[in-house]
Specification:
Layout (H helix, E strand, L loop, with lengths): L5 E6 L5 E7 L2 E8 L12 H23 L8 E7 L3 H18 L3 E5 H7 L17 E6 L4 E8 L2 E7 L5 H11 L6 H9 L22 H17 L3 H31 L4 E5 L6 H14 L2 E3 L10 H13 L17
Parallel strand pairs: 1-4, 4-5, 6-9, 9-10
Antiparallel strand pairs: 1-2, 2-3, 6-7, 7-8
Helix pairs in contact: 1-2, 3-9, 4-5, 4-6, 5-7, 6-7, 7-8
Protein backbone atom coordinates (compact mmCIF):
# COMPACT_ATOMS: atom_id res chain seq x y z
CA UNK A 1 0.00 0.00 0.00
CA UNK A 2 1.31 3.43 -1.01
CA UNK A 3 2.35 5.70 1.83
CA UNK A 4 0.48 8.97 1.96
CA UNK A 5 2.71 12.03 1.70
CA UNK A 6 1.09 15.37 2.49
CA UNK A 7 2.81 18.43 1.06
CA UNK A 8 1.89 22.03 1.87
CA UNK A 9 2.97 24.15 -1.11
CA UNK A 10 3.39 27.91 -1.30
CA UNK A 11 3.71 30.00 -4.46
CA UNK A 12 4.46 33.75 -4.31
CA UNK A 13 6.70 34.47 -7.30
CA UNK A 14 4.72 37.40 -8.72
CA UNK A 15 1.33 38.84 -7.78
CA UNK A 16 -0.66 35.73 -6.83
CA UNK A 17 -0.47 34.34 -3.29
CA UNK A 18 -1.26 30.64 -3.55
CA UNK A 19 -1.22 27.65 -1.20
CA UNK A 20 -2.07 24.03 -1.99
CA UNK A 21 -2.17 20.71 -0.17
CA UNK A 22 -1.21 17.52 -2.02
CA UNK A 23 -1.72 13.90 -1.05
CA UNK A 24 1.08 12.40 -3.15
CA UNK A 25 0.24 13.72 -6.65
CA UNK A 26 -3.47 14.19 -5.86
CA UNK A 27 -4.60 17.75 -5.31
CA UNK A 28 -6.68 18.23 -2.15
CA UNK A 29 -6.90 22.03 -2.22
CA UNK A 30 -5.54 24.97 -4.21
CA UNK A 31 -6.30 28.46 -2.91
CA UNK A 32 -5.15 31.62 -4.69
CA UNK A 33 -5.53 35.29 -3.77
CA UNK A 34 -5.01 37.60 -6.76
CA UNK A 35 -4.05 41.26 -6.52
CA UNK A 36 -6.26 43.73 -8.38
CA UNK A 37 -4.16 46.69 -7.22
CA UNK A 38 -1.81 46.41 -10.23
CA UNK A 39 -4.48 46.99 -12.89
CA UNK A 40 -4.36 50.76 -12.33
CA UNK A 41 -0.62 50.78 -13.15
CA UNK A 42 -0.72 48.62 -16.27
CA UNK A 43 1.71 46.09 -14.77
CA UNK A 44 2.87 44.50 -11.53
CA UNK A 45 4.38 46.96 -9.03
CA UNK A 46 6.88 44.89 -6.98
CA UNK A 47 6.55 46.82 -3.71
CA UNK A 48 2.74 46.63 -3.78
CA UNK A 49 2.93 42.93 -4.66
CA UNK A 50 5.11 42.03 -1.67
CA UNK A 51 2.89 43.99 0.73
CA UNK A 52 -0.19 42.21 -0.56
CA UNK A 53 1.54 38.83 -0.14
CA UNK A 54 2.17 39.69 3.51
CA UNK A 55 -1.54 40.35 4.00
CA UNK A 56 -2.69 37.29 2.08
CA UNK A 57 -0.35 34.46 2.98
CA UNK A 58 -1.68 33.44 6.41
CA UNK A 59 -5.39 33.38 5.42
CA UNK A 60 -4.55 31.60 2.14
CA UNK A 61 -2.54 28.84 3.88
CA UNK A 62 -5.23 28.49 6.54
CA UNK A 63 -7.94 28.14 3.87
CA UNK A 64 -5.89 25.57 1.93
CA UNK A 65 -5.44 23.34 5.00
CA UNK A 66 -9.12 23.60 5.95
CA UNK A 67 -10.39 22.84 2.43
CA UNK A 68 -8.06 19.85 2.21
CA UNK A 69 -9.25 18.54 5.57
CA UNK A 70 -5.62 18.11 6.60
CA UNK A 71 -4.25 19.16 9.98
CA UNK A 72 -0.78 20.69 10.05
CA UNK A 73 0.35 17.77 12.24
CA UNK A 74 -0.27 15.43 9.26
CA UNK A 75 2.05 17.30 6.91
CA UNK A 76 5.18 15.59 5.59
CA UNK A 77 7.00 18.65 4.20
CA UNK A 78 6.64 22.27 3.07
CA UNK A 79 7.44 23.14 -0.56
CA UNK A 80 7.91 26.72 -1.71
CA UNK A 81 8.84 28.62 -4.84
CA UNK A 82 12.43 29.78 -4.47
CA UNK A 83 12.58 31.49 -7.89
CA UNK A 84 12.67 32.85 -10.46
CA UNK A 85 10.35 35.78 -9.82
CA UNK A 86 10.10 39.12 -8.02
CA UNK A 87 12.50 39.05 -5.08
CA UNK A 88 10.20 40.95 -2.71
CA UNK A 89 7.33 38.58 -3.44
CA UNK A 90 9.53 35.48 -3.19
CA UNK A 91 10.89 36.64 0.18
CA UNK A 92 7.41 36.63 1.70
CA UNK A 93 6.67 33.05 0.61
CA UNK A 94 10.18 31.82 1.44
CA UNK A 95 10.14 33.39 4.91
CA UNK A 96 6.71 31.99 5.74
CA UNK A 97 7.64 28.51 4.50
CA UNK A 98 10.81 28.50 6.62
CA UNK A 99 9.01 29.67 9.77
CA UNK A 100 6.14 27.23 9.28
CA UNK A 101 8.45 24.27 8.61
CA UNK A 102 10.78 25.10 11.53
CA UNK A 103 7.88 25.40 13.98
CA UNK A 104 6.65 21.91 13.05
CA UNK A 105 10.04 20.25 12.48
CA UNK A 106 9.22 19.59 8.81
CA UNK A 107 11.70 19.35 5.92
CA UNK A 108 11.80 22.23 3.43
CA UNK A 109 11.66 21.69 -0.33
CA UNK A 110 12.70 24.44 -2.72
CA UNK A 111 10.97 24.48 -6.11
CA UNK A 112 12.02 26.12 -9.36
CA UNK A 113 8.99 28.02 -10.67
CA UNK A 114 9.62 27.06 -14.30
CA UNK A 115 10.10 23.36 -13.55
CA UNK A 116 6.84 23.52 -11.61
CA UNK A 117 4.98 24.83 -14.69
CA UNK A 118 6.28 21.81 -16.66
CA UNK A 119 5.36 19.33 -13.92
CA UNK A 120 1.85 20.79 -13.58
CA UNK A 121 0.98 18.08 -16.11
CA UNK A 122 1.32 15.46 -13.34
CA UNK A 123 -1.24 16.97 -10.95
CA UNK A 124 -3.97 14.40 -10.34
CA UNK A 125 -7.57 15.27 -9.54
CA UNK A 126 -8.49 11.63 -9.08
CA UNK A 127 -10.48 11.42 -12.33
CA UNK A 128 -10.66 8.18 -14.30
CA UNK A 129 -9.84 9.77 -17.68
CA UNK A 130 -6.58 11.43 -16.58
CA UNK A 131 -3.53 10.89 -18.75
CA UNK A 132 -0.02 12.17 -18.17
CA UNK A 133 3.01 12.68 -20.45
CA UNK A 134 5.52 9.86 -20.82
CA UNK A 135 9.24 10.60 -20.57
CA UNK A 136 10.94 11.94 -22.54
CA UNK A 137 8.64 14.69 -23.78
CA UNK A 138 8.95 18.20 -25.19
CA UNK A 139 7.29 21.06 -23.36
CA UNK A 140 6.61 24.50 -24.82
CA UNK A 141 6.81 26.73 -21.75
CA UNK A 142 5.31 30.15 -22.48
CA UNK A 143 4.49 32.88 -19.99
CA UNK A 144 4.85 36.60 -19.39
CA UNK A 145 8.52 36.20 -18.52
CA UNK A 146 9.61 33.06 -20.38
CA UNK A 147 9.36 31.36 -23.77
CA UNK A 148 11.26 28.08 -23.86
CA UNK A 149 11.28 24.66 -25.43
CA UNK A 150 12.23 22.17 -22.73
CA UNK A 151 13.30 18.56 -23.26
CA UNK A 152 11.94 16.74 -20.20
CA UNK A 153 13.86 13.53 -19.52
CA UNK A 154 12.46 12.97 -16.01
CA UNK A 155 10.84 14.70 -13.06
CA UNK A 156 14.25 15.93 -12.00
CA UNK A 157 16.02 16.21 -15.35
CA UNK A 158 15.14 18.94 -17.84
CA UNK A 159 17.13 20.55 -20.62
CA UNK A 160 16.35 23.90 -22.29
CA UNK A 161 16.92 23.44 -26.02
CA UNK A 162 15.48 26.80 -27.09
CA UNK A 163 14.50 30.06 -25.41
CA UNK A 164 13.74 33.69 -26.15
CA UNK A 165 16.75 35.92 -26.67
CA UNK A 166 14.76 39.04 -25.74
CA UNK A 167 11.04 39.39 -24.94
CA UNK A 168 8.75 36.53 -23.97
CA UNK A 169 5.52 35.75 -25.82
CA UNK A 170 3.33 36.84 -22.91
CA UNK A 171 5.31 40.06 -22.57
CA UNK A 172 4.70 40.82 -26.26
CA UNK A 173 0.97 40.27 -25.79
CA UNK A 174 0.84 42.52 -22.72
CA UNK A 175 2.88 45.35 -24.25
CA UNK A 176 0.94 45.36 -27.50
CA UNK A 177 -2.32 45.29 -25.54
CA UNK A 178 -1.17 48.28 -23.50
CA UNK A 179 -0.57 50.47 -26.59
CA UNK A 180 -4.07 49.54 -27.80
CA UNK A 181 -5.48 50.77 -24.50
CA UNK A 182 -6.52 47.31 -23.25
CA UNK A 183 -6.49 46.62 -19.48
CA UNK A 184 -3.68 44.71 -17.73
CA UNK A 185 -2.99 41.83 -18.08
CA UNK A 186 -3.52 42.17 -21.81
CA UNK A 187 -3.20 38.54 -22.93
CA UNK A 188 -6.76 37.44 -22.01
CA UNK A 189 -8.24 40.57 -23.62
CA UNK A 190 -6.33 39.93 -26.87
CA UNK A 191 -7.55 36.31 -26.82
CA UNK A 192 -11.17 37.43 -26.38
CA UNK A 193 -11.06 40.10 -29.11
CA UNK A 194 -9.14 37.83 -31.51
CA UNK A 195 -12.17 35.52 -31.70
CA UNK A 196 -14.12 38.37 -33.34
CA UNK A 197 -11.39 39.46 -35.78
CA UNK A 198 -9.75 38.48 -39.06
CA UNK A 199 -6.34 36.87 -38.32
CA UNK A 200 -5.10 37.56 -41.87
CA UNK A 201 -5.94 41.27 -41.99
CA UNK A 202 -2.52 42.55 -40.89
CA UNK A 203 0.98 41.17 -41.40
CA UNK A 204 3.67 41.69 -38.78
CA UNK A 205 7.36 40.87 -38.94
CA UNK A 206 8.59 37.43 -37.90
CA UNK A 207 12.14 36.89 -36.60
CA UNK A 208 14.72 34.73 -38.36
CA UNK A 209 16.60 33.17 -35.46
CA UNK A 210 18.70 30.04 -35.91
CA UNK A 211 18.07 26.87 -33.93
CA UNK A 212 15.13 26.63 -31.56
CA UNK A 213 15.50 30.08 -29.95
CA UNK A 214 12.76 32.70 -30.02
CA UNK A 215 12.62 36.47 -30.43
CA UNK A 216 9.59 38.70 -30.02
CA UNK A 217 11.12 42.19 -29.94
CA UNK A 218 10.94 42.58 -33.74
CA UNK A 219 7.29 41.56 -33.80
CA UNK A 220 6.52 44.07 -31.05
CA UNK A 221 8.32 46.84 -32.96
CA UNK A 222 6.53 45.92 -36.19
CA UNK A 223 3.18 46.09 -34.38
CA UNK A 224 4.00 49.53 -32.91
CA UNK A 225 5.11 50.89 -36.31
CA UNK A 226 1.89 49.66 -37.93
CA UNK A 227 -0.15 51.54 -35.33
CA UNK A 228 2.01 54.66 -35.63
CA UNK A 229 1.74 54.80 -39.43
CA UNK A 230 -2.00 54.14 -39.53
CA UNK A 231 -2.84 56.59 -36.74
CA UNK A 232 -1.31 59.44 -38.78
CA UNK A 233 -4.11 59.09 -41.34
CA UNK A 234 -6.87 57.84 -39.06
CA UNK A 235 -6.87 58.75 -35.35
CA UNK A 236 -9.62 56.14 -34.80
CA UNK A 237 -7.61 53.34 -36.42
CA UNK A 238 -7.08 51.27 -33.26
CA UNK A 239 -10.69 51.44 -32.13
CA UNK A 240 -12.04 50.60 -35.60
CA UNK A 241 -9.65 47.67 -36.12
CA UNK A 242 -9.05 46.36 -32.60
CA UNK A 243 -10.43 42.85 -33.19
CA UNK A 244 -8.47 42.39 -36.44
CA UNK A 245 -5.29 43.73 -34.82
CA UNK A 246 -5.67 41.28 -31.93
CA UNK A 247 -6.43 38.35 -34.23
CA UNK A 248 -3.46 39.12 -36.50
CA UNK A 249 -1.09 39.60 -33.56
CA UNK A 250 -2.24 36.37 -31.93
CA UNK A 251 -1.87 34.41 -35.18
CA UNK A 252 1.69 35.70 -35.63
CA UNK A 253 2.77 34.89 -32.05
CA UNK A 254 1.31 31.38 -32.30
CA UNK A 255 2.98 30.74 -35.67
CA UNK A 256 6.36 31.80 -34.24
CA UNK A 257 5.91 29.51 -31.23
CA UNK A 258 4.64 26.52 -33.19
CA UNK A 259 7.19 26.70 -36.02
CA UNK A 260 10.10 26.10 -33.64
CA UNK A 261 8.21 23.48 -31.62
CA UNK A 262 7.37 21.52 -34.78
CA UNK A 263 10.99 21.67 -35.92
CA UNK A 264 12.27 20.49 -32.53
CA UNK A 265 9.76 17.63 -32.40
CA UNK A 266 10.75 16.51 -35.91
CA UNK A 267 14.50 16.79 -35.33
CA UNK A 268 14.37 14.94 -32.00
CA UNK A 269 11.81 12.35 -33.21
CA UNK A 270 9.48 13.13 -30.31
CA UNK A 271 5.72 12.73 -30.28
CA UNK A 272 4.98 13.40 -26.61
CA UNK A 273 4.38 17.16 -26.70
CA UNK A 274 3.11 19.43 -23.91
CA UNK A 275 2.46 23.12 -23.40
CA UNK A 276 2.61 24.98 -20.08
CA UNK A 277 2.73 28.46 -18.53
CA UNK A 278 0.36 31.41 -18.51
CA UNK A 279 0.17 31.78 -22.30
CA UNK A 280 -0.96 28.13 -22.56
CA UNK A 281 -4.36 29.50 -21.48
CA UNK A 282 -4.62 31.19 -24.89
CA UNK A 283 -7.42 29.53 -26.86
CA UNK A 284 -5.62 29.99 -30.19
CA UNK A 285 -2.46 28.29 -28.93
CA UNK A 286 -4.45 25.44 -27.40
CA UNK A 287 -6.20 24.89 -30.74
CA UNK A 288 -2.89 25.08 -32.64
CA UNK A 289 -1.46 22.38 -30.35
CA UNK A 290 -4.44 20.11 -30.98
CA UNK A 291 -4.29 20.72 -34.74
CA UNK A 292 -0.56 19.92 -34.82
CA UNK A 293 -1.22 16.79 -32.77
CA UNK A 294 -3.67 15.50 -35.37
CA UNK A 295 -1.41 16.43 -38.27
CA UNK A 296 1.86 15.03 -36.92
CA UNK A 297 0.56 12.19 -34.74
CA UNK A 298 1.59 13.85 -31.48
CA UNK A 299 0.25 12.90 -28.08
CA UNK A 300 -0.64 16.43 -26.91
CA UNK A 301 -0.92 17.51 -23.27
CA UNK A 302 -2.65 20.79 -22.47
CA UNK A 303 -3.09 21.74 -18.79
CA UNK A 304 -6.50 22.67 -17.35
CA UNK A 305 -6.89 26.47 -17.29
CA UNK A 306 -6.48 26.55 -13.49
CA UNK A 307 -2.94 25.16 -13.79
CA UNK A 308 -1.72 27.50 -16.54
CA UNK A 309 -1.25 30.61 -14.41
CA UNK A 310 0.88 30.73 -11.25
CA UNK A 311 -0.55 28.33 -8.66
CA UNK A 312 0.66 26.32 -5.69
CA UNK A 313 -0.63 22.97 -7.00
CA UNK A 314 2.25 22.81 -9.49
CA UNK A 315 4.68 23.64 -6.66
CA UNK A 316 3.09 20.86 -4.58
CA UNK A 317 3.40 18.13 -7.20
CA UNK A 318 7.03 19.14 -7.86
CA UNK A 319 7.61 19.10 -4.12
CA UNK A 320 6.21 15.57 -3.91
CA UNK A 321 8.67 14.22 -6.49
CA UNK A 322 11.55 15.97 -4.72
CA UNK A 323 10.32 14.53 -1.40
CA UNK A 324 10.59 11.01 -2.84
CA UNK A 325 14.23 11.80 -3.75
CA UNK A 326 14.78 13.29 -0.25
CA UNK A 327 15.84 16.45 -2.08
CA UNK A 328 15.45 18.88 0.81
CA UNK A 329 16.95 22.36 1.20
CA UNK A 330 18.65 24.13 4.07
CA UNK A 331 16.84 26.77 6.09
CA UNK A 332 19.30 29.42 4.90
CA UNK A 333 18.32 29.06 1.21
CA UNK A 334 17.66 32.49 -0.30
CA UNK A 335 15.31 33.26 -3.20
CA UNK A 336 16.62 34.09 -6.68
CA UNK A 337 15.16 36.39 -9.33
CA UNK A 338 16.39 34.84 -12.58
CA UNK A 339 17.42 31.40 -13.84
CA UNK A 340 16.41 28.78 -16.41
CA UNK A 341 14.89 25.36 -15.70
Amino acid sequence: MENKVYILAIESSCDDTSAAVMENTRLLSNVTASQAVHEAYGGVVPELASRAHQQNIIPVVDAALKRAGVDKSQLSAVAFTRGPGLLGSLLVGTSFAKGFALSLGLPLIEVNHLQAHVLAHFISEGKSDEHFPSFPFLCLLVSGGNSQIVKVLGYNKMEIIGQTIDDAAGEAFDKCAKVMGLPYPGGPHIDRLAKEGNPNRFTFSKPHITGYDYSFSGLKTSFLYTLRDQLKDNPSFIEENKADLCASLQRTVIEILMDKLKRAAKDLHMREIAVAGGVSANSGLRQAMQDAGKRFGWNVYIPPLGYTTDNAAMVGVTGYFKYLDKDFCAVDAVPFARVGV
